[in-house]
User: Fold this.
Amino acid sequence: MKKKLLLALLSATMVTSAFSGDWSTIKIGTEGAYPPWNGTNAAGELEGAEIDLAMDLCERMNATCILVAQDWDGIIPALQNGKYDAIIAGMSITSERLEVIDFSQGYANEPATFSTQSSSALASTGTTGPLNLDLASSAGGLAELKSLLDGAVIGVQGSTTHENFVRQELGDSVTIKTYDTQQNLELDLLAGRLNAALSDSGSMEEFMKSNPGLAFFGPKLGGGQFGPGVGVGLRQSDTDLKAMFNKAIDEARADGTLATHFIKWFGKDISM
Amino acid sequence: MNFVDFCESLPNEFLGLKVQLMCNSTPKLLGGVPLTIELVLISLLIGFLLALGLALMRISKNRFLNVISRSYVFYFRGTPLLVQIFLIYYGLAQFDFIKESFVWPFFREAYWCGILALTLNTAAYTAEIIRGGLQSVPYGQIESARAIGMSGILLYRRIILPIAFRQALPAYGNEMILMVKGTSLVSTITLMEITGIARYIIAKYWTPVEIFLVAGVIYLVINFLVTQIIKYAEIRFTPYLEHAKKTR
Assistant:
């Protein structure tokens, strides 16, 4: 009888830790190489809009948060292996990622834009308006973009929505180079090894501030491969943690702090 | 049965590993082998010639040449290959005078930056290996050669270099293997050799363990072939030792 009770107790505790979890401490994975979303300052500390946001959300969830820096190309496997419990790293919600992980509601949305050297022919074509790939009417703009970039060498950060877009939409008509970090991509664009880079506008704008000689061109891309926005990446089994993050994001949006974090780091409100 | 059917005949998962994905990724990863081999062969070849010069400078009595060789080896052996690759690829591109000069078409290409870094790196290690070989040549043999009238280039070509290479061969075999593995670092400068392709596939399917396992096996096979070549060369260059083994 005693043994049975003990077993029942044991299995009860196991069930709680596996399914509802004790979320008084939450480990959060971020890249730390994607300013102003999440960067690393000269002192080696993580900083950026998402670092502030993570701390803010944790306070709302009454949790102690530990931030872990993780290379981008391993950021999803490490979540799945339990190295941390959530990803806050400028990660767009996409259907491909939703097959392996889950996301909270979106908290920010920033269009993807091409950039190039200011002196290049591509730069002289200038920027055009938003192009929402979810709309059928985007086909014309897409075809225009394709002919503009025909034969160009285009750089993207690997395993990003930007890489997916370039491979799927431009594919054989361009040469694609992938980089492990956004910073290495920016350096190679500046060096003139690339005709164009595709990245999110915010991080490229940040780089352009300290490195003149680069310019945006073409449309502001959204929807399609880029998904409906950036959210907190979570394991599919942690539905309770997802509910906690959704509630905290709701609160931060309602009292205006969500927008404040992005205005502070991006100089504009990209929250959603 | 073709390869695709073969992969499909495998279980989807085994011991928690996605076996079908590993199977399907193998041809893609093998697509990186030619570039890996190319990088190794070109840098070993140029690196060896450079190393030969450095080793001769190192044992020469000219202090100026000696210092140059010593410093070269000191810097290239003392800093990580990854740092050298980054400095050559990202570092040099930051200087306008390089971007405006005639060398830029060369440094613009990741391929040549990779070859240059690997070549300079292997030259430093190989110079030390060759120096060790040269200094291990017994003085008696040099004296004997002199006694029958050999000197200068002839003495080097007929006596010193063959004995030195023979002595240096096992250590040089090690260096060749290190170079095969060293090429994986150029994936960080956009070159799609075996590791570069592995990272690309991982990014697509989020399965680092499976893909790196396959990549690891490919490196293992390449290095197995390298060790076989070294072994064959050792037997060829030291037939008397083989003979001694058999008659012992």
About this structure: Chain A has a mean pLDDT of 91. Chain A touches chain B through 21 residues (CB under 8 Å). The two ends of chain A are 56 Å apart (CA to CA). Residues 39 and 47 of chain A are 5 Å apart (CA to CA).
